[in-house]
Amino acid sequence: MISSDTRICHSEKGWTDSELGLLWMQKDFEPTTREKAAGRTRILLMDGHSSHYTPELLRFAQSHNIEILGYPLHCTHALQGLDVVCFASIKDIYGDEIKAFEDHTKHVFTKADFTGVFGHAFLSAFTPNTVKAAFEKIGIYPFNPDVITPSQMKPSEASSTKGLAPITQPSPVQAIINAFRKAPPTSFDVADDTHTLPVIAASPAMSALLLDDVNIDPMLRAPCSASPESPDLSSLVASSSTSSVSKRDAEDSTDADTPSKHIQLMTANLSQTMSGSFLVSKPKMTTLNHIAPPILQRAPFSAILEPDWSLICEMSEHEHLSHQDLAEGVKALTLNLRLAQLHVEAQDGIIESANAQLVIQNIYTDKLHHALFEKETKKASKADRVVLNVGGTHLTDEEFIQEMEHRKQAREAGKEAKRIRKEQKAAKKAKKDASQAAWQEILIAHQSEVNTWKTLCDRLVQQGARKKDLPSKPR
């Protein structure tokens, strides 16, 4: 069991806070070390947790001749004795105690068993020798600054916070991503009337892709005279891709080939989609914003005949062919070369689609990164955290305490202003509700008067009264 003078405290949120930190200073540290200090200055080393430097705690320590020193930033892994020695020891002992407890009691360790099990581990780990070893390990006592090596104080290596694909992206994808990052889309770029996209008819390879894609509505497919399973080879030779380009596009064909124009067209096209417009717009990211999962495509070989690859073999030098045989050979080579071209176009389309998915996923990752950064920045500004000095901070210094008091007053003033605004808003809403309720009562009373007037007018008309003699309608 833990000793009888041990205190266990908790907060509503389950984390240590400024109130618990002050109570620890007043009820534990100061009374426990008072007799041993015998009027001498006491030194307390603490990390940068906000509960360690509240104005009340620092003023109490100052008034009781306690100097509090804060560790340098990001150095507690090497300078804090509890982390270096004590906690490392109790971690292993505590695990052993839990296992021994469960083996002895034959039931699972629960919160109700915490004090007893942890007490045994604490008394075994926090011995006088262990505590002294902690001070010696970090060079506090005996004082030895050489125990901290330069490698322990080496700054962490810079790393990216942006999500990246697990494989190296192709250079076209990297170029598009860099273009989007250096010049984010503006409202002009995403406007509906900024760009007019040319209407391009599908090439034979694209038509084959559409025929083989189960996600395409059959009603949207272009009519095909030949069956996709056995297309006419002569028609493949004669076929060619056609495009319908407006006069303006024809005049600006030179500009349309520039990288910036391609980015603008891609941005405009993306802004007109329901599922991707948020990637190039300004609205905040929510859980409703998500992109479609990637699609792994395969070449539509079922819709394209396999070329006769045996024609690649060189012709024998001793083989003599007639003019007709040569013409038929040229025709066969032309037909199979066209089939091979269709295969290449289909594969290029799949690669282009995969690259486009990489671009979309990277734009989406960037949007998530910016949204998370804004959220973290907003949270940090609300927390109003104190940035301690890199080389350590004298927390009980008068200037530092005054700064903490000023910050606390500013926070309390902000809370008071927020409370006043809330009360004013509630009073305004109550006044508005009362006005609406009074108006409803007036409407109900007026409607009752109007109904009474209509009844009176109907009765007078039945009795032969003229309309000009009827009473006026209530207002």
Give an account of the 3D structure:
Helix 4 (81-105) packs across helix 5 (114-125). This protein has helices at residues 18-37, 55-63, 76-79, 81-105, 114-125, 128-137, 171-182, 204-212, 233-238, 247-251, 253-256, 259-271, 323-383, 398-462; strands spanning 42-46, 66-70, 199-200, 243-244, 393-394. With 475 residues, it is mainly alpha-helical. The protein has a three-stranded mixed sheet, with helices on one face. A two-stranded antiparallel ribbon has the order 3-4. 54% of the residues lie in helices and 3% in strands. The protein has 14 helices and five strands. The termini are far apart. Mean pLDDT is 77; it is low at 160-165, 196-202 and 213-255. Among the domains are: 171-185 and 199-244 and 281-312 and 319-383, no CATH class; 398-469.
Question: Whole-Å distance between the termini?
Answer: 85 Å
Pairing-aware structural class of the strands and helices?
A: mainly alpha
Give the SSE string.
HEHEHHHHHEHHEHHHHEH
Sheet with the most strands, sense and barrel status: 3 strands, mixed
Radius of gyration from CA coordinates: 40 Å
Q: Report helical residue fraction.
A: 40-55%
Give the overall silhouette. Answer: flat
Number of strands: 5
Mean pLDDT: 77
Unreliable stretches covering 5 or more consecutive residues: 160-165, 196-202, 213-255
Proportion of strand residues: under 5%
| Strand order across the largest sheet | 1-2-5
**Assembly state (oligomeric):** single chain
Task: Provide a count of the helices.
Answer: 14
Pfam family, one: DDE_1
Protein name: DDE-1 domain-containing protein
Domain DDE-1: 7-97
Keywords: Coiled coil
